[in-house]
Design goal:
3 helices; about 180 residues; about 15% helix; alpha+beta; three-stranded antiparallel sheet
């Protein structure tokens, strides 16, 4: 069938429909959304929670400590180490020996903190011991040749820092332990 046999009104309607189809697109689908016109946004960076810092020491020990007592606070690393020969000195400081029992690789970082308490169990202050076997900051680029925390272990001293009284006891914690 050709257009010559159709009435003029039908021919005009067909022409208008063809023109409309060309103007709006032939697919019959709705016009593309703004999202489809824009390139896909880059994936958002993965956001990890910030590392937790060590919890603050308890303001009061319960039960009150015995004179000279050194307790070990259970934490994420206490099952990986062996703490022995713990003593509260008159300096004041806590001394002892630590051996990493779970791994024989180099210890990249170790931190031991001590919370110092009076005879009634009130917090007087804290101190920190830092240890590193590898790295330029601690050994000026030289390999570590001294005792290692892994294996036989090392002796340590956690000096008290700015105490508000005379300590009768201490609680040790290990907030950082990083092995190679």
């Amino acid at each position: 069938m050709t257009l010559t046999y159709l009435p003029r009104a039908a021919a005009a309607a067909a022409a208008a429909a063809a023109l409309f189809a060309l103007a709006t697109g032939c697919s019959g689908a709705a016009s593309p959304s703004a999202e489809a016109k824009d390139p896909a946004p880059a994936a958002a960076p993965v956001s990890l929670p910030a590392p937790r810092s060590a919890p603050a020491p308890a303001a009061v020990l319960t039960p009150a400590p015995a004179a000279g007592e050194v307790r070990t606070e259970q934490g994420p690393f206490t099952d990986r180490v062996k703490l022995t020969d713990l003593h509260l000195t008159g300096a004041p400081a806590v001394t002892g020996h630590i051996a990493i029992s779970s791994d024989v690789s180099d210890t990249l970082a170790l931190e031991i903190t001590a919370a110092y308490y009076d005879a009634q169990g009130h917090l007087l202050g804290t101190g920190t011991f830092h240890y590193q076997e590898e790295g330029e900051e601690s050994h000026a680029g030289q390999p570590h040749t001294g005792p290692r925390a892994a294996g036989d272990g090392i002796g340590f001293t956690v000096p008290a820092d700015h105490l508000t009284g005379t300590p009768a006891a201490a609680v040790l914690s290990i907030p950082v332990l990083v092995n190679e």
